[in-house]
């Protein structure tokens, strides 16, 4: 331990951002590992053991001491660095056991580097990791902290100011606890957060809708701590006044399977500006959390938080749903809603109606309500018209391509593209197909909607931002066959589409007309009564702080 330690700045190296980056090298003690030669360059930190071969990997009472520690960490994976005063550094992790008298412990100045590792059992899950380096000289530690801090500032994709909404009632009422558990990560990442704990339903919607664009621009994005329904509320509060697009055609605009009138995109002039930098994060605390599962590959508040603080970015398609008539007798009165994951009718609308009465049950309400609705086996008469996209969907004929991080399908075309329901140049080519009958359910999945009940989701090969909706029509069928279909949905690798009564259409827009008296839709888990509606998808309309599913 008395070995002379050196610290030398080896000179300037040109960084891609043209900042001068010093290469530092110094001997440190890495807690739980031993003495290392630590190097810092523009990419990250690297270290190698400097223990002599006899002591390297030495053992204590027959147990190998030097653990298999990683020997580098990239700054892109580091979310914070902190000076940690004077304290104990252990040569081996085993030294935490007081009985291990042979293991060395030293007292020195320390600094901590905060990063993550992928879980061995579930690679999509990110696990917090801290590297503690010790040195007898305080100034050396402080210099390294400053140097690493300077390198982290260069990671310009990272947010600095976030507006956070916490739903204390999410899931089993765990919203506030979930937020408290991840606050230290935001603090270490030096991100300023303005936190609003909601006091009622629609509180977050009202804040988003009433905040001016000028005030919103003080933030790099919005974080929702809650479930899909809560995120939907925030999304609608954001988009309804800012995304001014023409509506999709009404059911009566579709004459002879052609669209009578064309529509064109007309975004709010402020909107494209928001699109380029403003991002949304979701820290899962809800009952389903399908959007988080699809955009990160797991349902873990720590993973989602790390992807927010590290400034990950993935585009997400959004469906715009326009209700023309609420009931058969109501007058024509367009009402717009946005959905990030799913819009469903029949079975899905009935489950949400039942489960809303059972909120006190927490997430179990979906099982209970689902069973009741299944036993009822109600079917509904309706007509659907949808844009035929077979000619342009080259993947439909090929094999299933799952959406993953850096997905080649999601990255093929530019984002913020309107669905092709009627942009004038394509109007003549838009062909609509119709489907009429009695349906057990009608579902439109924007993303795969993977969740714990349906491990592959409703549509295994749906993508986060390919610009398509997956329309799934389940025609009235025998109860046992429907159960079979549902069990396929609940099985990993199941084939829920392989039934005669199931139609699956990849489309960009559809219209719906009910022939019943009451028609309830389920938009991202929220109830929406609609006798007549239309929906269209906007490709990559928003950006999430997420890296895509590592499935
Ligand atoms: N303080 C509050 N009190 C009561 N309800 C609230 C409050 N804040 C938000 N809500 C409402 O709670 C509803 C559901 O929230 P959330 O989506 O977070 O949980 P969940 O329904 O359990 O999960 P999931 O949507 O994933 O199934 C939202 O529609 C939201 O309007």
Automatic annotation (TrEMBL):
Residues 157-325 form the DAGKc domain. It comes from the Eukaryota. GO terms for molecular function: calcium ion binding; ceramide kinase activity. GO terms for biological process: ceramide metabolic process; programmed cell death; regulation of programmed cell death; response to bacterium; response to salt stress. One of its GO terms (cellular component) is membrane. This is DAGKc domain-containing protein. The lineage of its organism: Eukaryota, Viridiplantae, Streptophyta, Embryophyta, Tracheophyta. InterPro entries: ATP-NAD_kinase_N, CERK_C, Diacylglycerol_kinase_cat_dom, Lipid_Phosphate_FormReg, NAD/diacylglycerol_kinase_sf. It holds the Pfam family CERK_C.
């Amino acid at each position: 331990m008395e070995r002379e330690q050196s610290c030398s700045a080896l000179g300037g190296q040109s960084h891609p951002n043209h900042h001068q980056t010093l290469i530092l090298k110094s001997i440190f003690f890495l807690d739980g590992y031993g003495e290392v030669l630590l190097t810092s360059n523009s990419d990250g930190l690297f270290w190698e053991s400097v223990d002599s071969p006899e002591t390297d990997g030495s053992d204590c009472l027959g147990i190998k001491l030097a653990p298999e520690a990683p020997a580098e960490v990239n700054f892109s994976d580091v979310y914070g660095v902190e000076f940690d005063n004077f304290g104990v550094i252990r040569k081996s992790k085993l030294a935490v056991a007081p009985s291990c008298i042979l293991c060395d412990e030293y007292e020195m100045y320390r600094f901590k580097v905060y990063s993550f590792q992928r879980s061995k059992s579930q690679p999509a899950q990110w696990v917090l990791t801290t590297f503690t380096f010790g040195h007898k000289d305080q100034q050396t530690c402080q210099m390294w902290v400053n140097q690493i801090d300077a390198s982290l500032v260069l990671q310009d994709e990272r947010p600095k100011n976030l507006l956070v909404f916490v739903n204390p009632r999410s899931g089993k009422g765990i919203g506030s606890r979930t937020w408290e558990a991840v606050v230290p990560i935001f603090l270490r990442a030096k991100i300023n957060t303005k936190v609003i704990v909601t006091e009622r339903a629609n509180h977050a919607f009202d804040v988003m809708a009433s905040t001016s664009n000028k005030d919103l621009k003080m933030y790099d994005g919005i974080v929702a701590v809650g479930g899909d329904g809560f995120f939907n509320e925030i999304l609608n509060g954001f988009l309804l006044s800012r995304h001014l697009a023409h509506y999709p055609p009404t059911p009566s605009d579709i004459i002879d399977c052609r669209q009578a009138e064309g529509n064109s995109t007309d975004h709010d002039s402020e909107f494209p500006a928001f699109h380029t930098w403003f991002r949304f994060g979701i820290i899962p605390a809800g009952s389903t959390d399908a959007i988080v599962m699809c955009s990160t590959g797991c349902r873990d508040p720590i993973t989602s938080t790390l992807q927010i603080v590290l400034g990950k970015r993935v585009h997400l398609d959004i469906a715009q749903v326009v209700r023309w008539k609420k009931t058969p007798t109501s007058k024509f009165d367009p009402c717009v809603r946005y959905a990030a994951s799913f819009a469903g009718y029949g079975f899905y609308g009935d489950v949400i109606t039942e489960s809303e009465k059972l909120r006190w049950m927490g997430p179990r309400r979906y099982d209970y309500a689902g069973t009741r609705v299944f036993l009822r086996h109600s079917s509904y008469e309706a007509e659907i018209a949808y844009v035929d996209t077979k000619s342009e969907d080259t993947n439909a004929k090929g094999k299933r391509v799952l959406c993953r991080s850096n997905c080649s399908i999601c990255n093929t075309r530019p984002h913020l593209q309107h669905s092709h329901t009627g942009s004038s140049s394509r109007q003549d080519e838009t062909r609509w197909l119709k489907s009429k009958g009695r349906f057990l359910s009608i579902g439109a999945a924007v993303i795969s909607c993977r969740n714990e009940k349906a491990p592959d989701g409703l549509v295994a090969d749906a993508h986060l931002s390919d610009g398509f909706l997956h329309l799934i029509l389940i025609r009235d069928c025998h109860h046992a066959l429907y159960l079979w279909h549902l069990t396929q949905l609940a099985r990993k690798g199941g084939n829920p589409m392989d039934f005669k009564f199931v139609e699956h259409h990849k489309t960009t827009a559809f219209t719906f007309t009910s022939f019943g008296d009451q028609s309830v839709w389920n938009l991202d888990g929220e109830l929406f009564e609609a006798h007549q509606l239309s929906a269209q998808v906007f490709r990559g309309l928003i950006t999430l702080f997420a890296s895509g599913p590592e499935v």
